[in-house]
Amino acid sequence: MALYVYKFGGTSVGSVDRIQKVADKIKQARDLGHQIVVVVSAMSGETNRLVDLANAVQTEVNPREIDVLLSTGEQVTMALLSMALQAKGCLARSYTGSQIKILTDENHTKARIEAIDKHILQADLAQGYVPVIAGFQGVTANGTITTLGRGGSDTTAVALAATLNADECHIYTDVDGVYTTDPRIEPKARRLDKITFEEMLEMASLGSKVLQIRAVEFAGKYNVALRVLSSFKAGNGTLITYDEESNMEAPLISGIAHNRDEAKLTLTGVPDLPGIASKILSPIADANIEIDMIIQNVASDKNTDFTFTVHRNDYAKAFKVLEQIKHDLGAKAVIGDDKIVKVSIIGVGMRSHAGIASTMFKALADENINIEMISTSEIKISVVVDEKYLELAVRTLHAAFKLDQINS
Amino acid sequence: MALYVYKFGGTSVGSVDRIQKVADKIKQARDLGHQIVVVVSAMSGETNRLVDLANAVQTEVNPREIDVLLSTGEQVTMALLSMALQAKGCLARSYTGSQIKILTDENHTKARIEAIDKHILQADLAQGYVPVIAGFQGVTANGTITTLGRGGSDTTAVALAATLNADECHIYTDVDGVYTTDPRIEPKARRLDKITFEEMLEMASLGSKVLQIRAVEFAGKYNVALRVLSSFKAGNGTLITYDEESNMEAPLISGIAHNRDEAKLTLTGVPDLPGIASKILSPIADANIEIDMIIQNVASDKNTDFTFTVHRNDYAKAFKVLEQIKHDLGAKAVIGDDKIVKVSIIGVGMRSHAGIASTMFKALADENINIEMISTSEIKISVVVDEKYLELAVRTLHAAFKLDQINS
Questions:
Q1: How far does A55 lie from chain B, in Å, by closest CA?
Q2: What is the pLDDT of residue B408?
Q3: How far is Cα B219 from Cα B169, in angstroms, rounded to an integer?
Q4: Is A83 close to B65, i.e. CB distance below 8 A?
Q5: CATH topology of domain A3-174
Q6: pTM of the full predicted structure?
Q7: Domain residue ranges of chain B, discontinuous segments joined by +
Q8: How far is residue B375's CA from residue B341's CA, in Å, rounded to a whole number?
Q9: Which residues of B are less than 8 Å from A99 in CB distance?
């Protein structure tokens, strides 16, 4: 007998029929003797409906009331799922974030969980109940409703799993696990049985939409074994966990991620003086633009080229900022390109293996794919290439690292 | 400067445009220097939408979860109205029943209010905020969400007005006050400026749909001055209050009510023995049928006819019960009629004036309207007549008591 936290996203509870199917899945686990705590999102479409209503009455965002409004979405789902469970003979009780005291800070629309009172849940579990919890929401110390922002329901599930010391936290979604790469690009992409938190974090931050980065971070911090599964298909999904066993059999590379959302900007002929990077990047930060990759080459002639990437939506704004500061910094010109993609290989195995980077660069060179930028971390190598090479680069690297084969 | 509790029903907040109009009305009162506490219902249609969802997943009613589900309707409205108020420069904050601790008993779907914590509201009012409260909902001592049943939002408003010692409780609805009778039947019907709690209670229990009987009782008990007004038209509506002044100028009759929802049943030839009424009515009560009027004539020959009225929906069921007990009671026959109506005249003035009943009966007789049953209370006389006479009887009595004239 194990204790699991199950989280179902908006698509998984998007209709009365789907709620019934979710209830069947929970009932099955209960019939096997497992204890289950459920976290639900709002039915798909509901959050948009509420946001439209809000936009029709307010002139600027009212964060306190937006949270009051949006939190009703999950409350509807939790009541309906509890009814469906009870109707199938499975004891169930629903709780809002406020009712089980998911205490957060006061940052409306993006609050952080500070504590969860586990006593109600433990009492319910001991009596054979399935507690059904509204995801995405919490309450401040003085009783005000908050929401947790993007991916908030995943975070709720992980926090509950950590608090209750659950055996696993299951994230049910519309994909059946984490793949070696995007199957829409490389049909040979293979579902991974297992991936480490660090790899998953890199995957998420590089554009894989399976899990929100925040939930993965949270799970890693509290060592909650996360499993990503399909709500609609059978299967064991992908387990995300610390790789506590020997690294001997770990694959060198676990997956290939890509991100189409970036654009790059270069300030050429910048005098290579101390503090120049901060002089370039401070006005960018002041304009609320987030920066991803940064590259500055060693200067050969007292001048250097300074390149960085931003979200494609911020490209025009960033370009304008650089044009404004160009003269003050004594730079030559601003050049940019928003037709780029970032392709990354990820794997904890590369820590202990040399030659991964050269394998990657050689594979790309063999296909005449020009690498425009390179950035590395301990378990990841990212390259920026022209966007026309996206599919070719992904497939080439997938083959080069034999990701279609188990334990490559 | 006065303190008012305003309550807006589902039609009054049924769209984004109407919510904006409600916000304007509140802003006007604030600009005049009044303190306002607002109670809102769910947007019209929303409760039905939620009930349909519930019926699609549950096989029998799950009272705990139905309350969790339905309470989201008011929560959506309170957030939207608070946003609209803030957007118009009027400070506002929304609260669920749980957040301002509207403590109730544990009777889900028809809970009774036990206490309200006024401290949050008083602090908000002192800071110039308009607290916007979800009507119809409360919370038990252990934090479970409850709803108050039919007319629950009116009850919330009256309870808040009592707790805060408000000057008046305004019930905004789609009619502009209480009329001498139904204007759809008698176009000369006149809006009353004032009516007593007792009269309003009789009106409500006799089928007038303006206010729920429970809210009127509650207002009477705590001496909350209630005012019924239109959300859409200007005007002072009707004030419902204790008639603390002299009765001298009070009209004899305040209004004429009617009820089409009743049916009558008679057990003929019942032996007139002690306890016979209870022997007839106990099986009716056991079948969960509520009884309204009861008439038993003095027996002339040891036998009597026993007549009572029930809701028309219960007519067939009650008939069957009587058929079953007829022989045991030694009665002759069961006869019934579901084509009747009850017409009532109401007025505290009749306490101190003789001749009201005879005026009523004479007016009906002059129109050849046969009276089938009569029942009286201190401030009301009801008659049952054939339903074909409904409009004629109402108009005849409206004219007989000169209700189209002020201070008749």
A1: 9
A2: 43
A3: 9
A4: yes
A5: Carbamate kinase (3.40.1160)
A6: 0.82
A7: 3-174
A8: 13
A9: 98, 143-145
